[in-house]
Every structure is written in structure tokens, then in C-alpha cells.
Amino acid sequence: MPTSVAKKRPTVAVIGLGYIGLPTAAVLASSGADVIGVDINSETVNLINQGLVPFVEPDMATTLAGVVSQGFLTAATETPHAETYIVAVPTPFLEGHQPDLSYIRDAGHQIAPLLDGNELVVLESTSPPGTTEYLAETILAERPDLTLTPNLSNSIYFAHCPERVLPGRIMIELRTNDRVIGTLNGNAGERARELYRLFCEGEFLMTDARTAELSKLTENAYRDVNIAFANELSMIADSLDINVWELISLANHHPRVNILQPGPGVGGHCIAVDPWFIVSAVPDRASLIRTAREVNDAKPEFVLDKLLPQARRIHNVKIAALGLSFKPNIDDLRESPARQIVGRLAEELPGAEILVAEPNIELLPEELSNRQNVSLAPTESAIERADIVLLLVDHQEFTNLGPSVLAQKIVHDTRGVWN
Ligand code: SAJ
After folding, report:
1. Is residue 4 scored above 60 in pLDDT?
2. How confident is the model over 379-404, as pLDDT tens digits?
3. Residue nearest (by alpha carbon) to ligand 1 atom 37
4. Domain with 313 in it
5. Tell me, what's the pLDDT at 58?
6. What pLDDT sits at residue 269?
């Protein structure tokens, strides 16, 4: 009688349990892998081990609670041995927009002593060209007994599989987006594909590690350049006293024109950062990409230039600032232009009362909570008390507001919601 042999669950250590690492760990664990998530933040680790998500991301809570209670995902502060390591740590930039690879180097130091031979290391973090190689070099410098030459008992395999999911839709896009996989040595890419196939229904596009690295940066630079076009148009239209939202909607009726939406600037840890990795890799060739970054980075100041003269004319002005996150319906404040604008308003208008309505957070970030003239307030009461309403993020709570609540208010709508 044939006996059925249960397929062994692969063991995976995911290093970095942030906006990408944690959902990836949860989805892998719910799709047949035994996952240990690693993070230096013990609070994050404790929350996850109770099945709780430390940030707002639609549809994540149920998956996470399920895999933790079944024992398929555990979190720890120490990296364990695993067959596969997925590195999903931050890649911020330093002064002068040079990439900071220190978290990747640290991940390499954590992994190096644990390796026996034949493990796969997948870099997911968005990285400048050459970073997968840098991770491999970091590990091999510490472990000269290991090798990149494939098919030996002491071979270690490296691949780059950049994350491409959109915050707010991560749990859907992890399963449906196509994935680019770049191989550094041997059959690393094929091995990564086998693992990602557990949960990803998209197409797998195979290439080398450097091309995969640049492809991810290219996607975000493409979007940044297109948003910069919309933001530049908004400033041009303002000078000409033309409504930019109407302008874009008219132009977009052309079958080959699809202009994005202007806003108060570009935030988040991806689009506002990644194009700089291209600029810093080839500075004298990346002029359009650099200019787009500069245009988008200048947009918060433009918003302030329009608002401040009006605010200064009102004695003890009250401003309702609607939204603080970098985009709608999430709680992520990283690189948020809204947060930057509110901080500058607080500095420039010491006598003002700035009422921040942000339905997705319970506490203001420290640089704002320290200010006497800034407080968090429920949306309706912030608007009711305000002379000026400044819409910074198109959260659904704001787009649902009827026009009557804005009557008698000076309105600055940076997202075109009420236009
Ligand atoms: N924004 C505008 N106007 C628009 C679209 C966006 O001002 O028409 C602003 C948003 O308000 C936000 C910023 O741009 O401040 C970025 O938002 P986003 O929704 O364009 O992108 P992110 O940063 O949330 O996610 C991007 C995605 N990349 C692309 O769409 C090419 C995502 O797929 C990536 O996985 C993610 O970066 C990442 O992690 O790299």
C-alpha cells in the first residue's frame, strides 16, 4: 500500500520585520514554510509573538494571528540557523543622499557564523547595484571557509528578489505581483523562485542580481519622475491661475496621456529615497531623475509659501491640518510631506493653534508633540474650530466629508479632493 510522505516544510529566517519583512514572513508561513522572523526591536518581537501587527496594513491581522497561533511563525531578536535567509532590512540614505548599507552589513554579520554550506540568502531590501555582491562579500570575508562556487559542500547561494508591493495593498500584491529574481551565483535564483512560488501567483522574471537591483530602482524612479511632472504642472497652473485638477483631467482624455496626481510632495521610504541610489551610482548621467527628486522635494515649501501669508493675516489663527501619513489610509509617517509641512507650520506660526486630524495614529510624533501649538484632534472638531483647513492626505475619512462642514473656511486642498 503506498504511504504518503508529507513534504518537509522549508525553514526560512526573515531578517527585518518591518513593512515588507513581516507581511512576507506571514504569507510564507501561511503557505507552507516554517518561518522565524528576526528583529532588533524586542517590542516588535513581543507583539508579533502575541499575533499582533505593529502597524496598520489592511488584511494583515488575520493572517498573522493565524500563523502565530499555529506555530508556523515565531519572532525572535536572535537569528537562528535556517535553510533560507530573507534579508528585508531598511536601506536609508546618509547625508548627501549616499546609500546607507549598514543594516545589510549587520544582517550579513548575523548570518555569517550560522552557515553550514548550501544555504540560500535572498536580499529583498531595495538596494543600489552591487549590493547583493556586497552582502555576499561581507559574509565570505567572515567565513573564508565558504565559497560562491556552486555545487560544493561549502557553497552559499545568493539572489536578489526586490519587493514591489504597494503599502495599503501588501497582502494582495504579495500574492499577485510578478517578481524579478536576480541570481548572483549557481542556481540561487531558481531556488528563490521555488520558495516564492509557495505564495506568489505572479510571473517570475529571471535575471542577474545587478539588473534586478536596478530594475527595482527604475520602477520607483519612473513613478517619481511622473509625479514630479504632475507637481511641476500644479505650480505652473497656480502661476497662471488655472485649476490643475481640471487641466490634468482634460489632458488625460488623450488616449496616450496619463498624468498622475499632484500633491503636497512625495513621501514614504521608497519613491522619495530609491531614485537617489541611481543618482549616486551614476551622478553625471542621472539628470532627469535628480531633477524629479528636487521638484518633488520642493513641493512642501510651495504649499507653505501659499499658506503662510494668509495664516499670518489672521490673529491667533487656527489651522486644521488633515492627515499626517505619507499617503491615504495607512499610518506610515516615514518621509511624509504632510508631517514636514505641519512641523514647519508649527515653527513659523508660534501663536497659531494647529489641530492635526490623523485617524490612523493615536500619538503625534515626538517633534510635533513637543510643540505647544500642535495637538491631535478628531476630524470634525478640528475643522469646526479652524479658520483654515489644510488637506494634506486624502484619507477616506476626509474624502467622505460633505461640503457643508467646509463652509466659511479658507480651504487649502493639496490633493484635489474638493476641487
Ligand atoms: N503620490 C502623488 N501622486 C500620485 C501618486 C503618488 O503625489 O499620483 C505620492 C503619494 O502621496 C506618496 C508617494 O507619492 O506620498 C508615494 O506613494 P505611491 O503610492 O506612489 O508609492 P509607495 O511609496 O507607497 O510604493 C511604491 C510602489 N512603487 C511603484 O508604484 C513603482 C510600490 O510598488 C513599491 O513596492 C514601493 O514603492 C517600494 O517599497 O519600493
Report:
1. no
2. 999 999 999 999 999 999 999 898 88
3. 270
4. 219-413
5. 86
6. 87
Determine the length of the chain.
Answer: 419
Question: Residue 14 pairs with which residues in a beta bridge?
Answer: 37, 86
305 lies in the same domain as 366: yes
SS3 250: helix
Q: Which of 412, 419, 358, 370 is CA-nearest to residue 387?
A: 412
Residues 82 and 45 in one domain: yes
304 and 348 Cβ atoms separated by less than 8 Å: yes
Residue 208 lies in a domain: no
Rounded CA gap, 352 and 273, in Å? Answer: 32
**Catalytic annotation present for 318:** no
Q: Name the residue with the closest Cα to ligand 1, atom 38.
A: 270
Question: What residue spans of 349-401 are helical by DSSP H?
Answer: 366-369, 379-385, 396-399
Q: Based on the fold, state whether residues 190 and 234 are members of the same structural domain.
A: no
Distance CA(409)–CA(411), nearest Å, equals: 6
CA distances to 3, 229, 355 from 297, in Å:
63, 13, 24
Choose, from 216, 306, 327, 409, the residue flagged as catalytic.
Answer: 216
Mutate which of 174, 252, 271 to test ligand 1's pocket (most atoms within 8 Å of Cβ)? 271
Residue bearing the CA closest to ligand 1, atom 34: 164
345 is a domain residue: yes
Ligand 1 contact via 231 beta carbon (within 6 Å)? no
Average pLDDT, integer, range 193-202: 98
Strands ordered across the beta sheet of 84-87: 73-76, 34-38, 11-15, 84-87, 120-123, 157-160, 179-183, 204-208
Does any domain span residue 210?
no
Q: How far is the CA of 66 from the centre of ligand 1 (A)?
A: 29
Partner residues linked to 181 by β-bridges: 206
The reported pTM is 0.92
In 282-416, where does DSSP find H-type helix? Answer: 287-312, 337-348, 366-369, 379-385, 396-399
326: CATH: 3.40.50.720
| pLDDT (0 to 100) of residue 1 | 47
pLDDT tens digits for range 113-128: 999 999 999 999 999 9
User: Which cell numbers in the block locate residue 261?
Assistant: 496626481
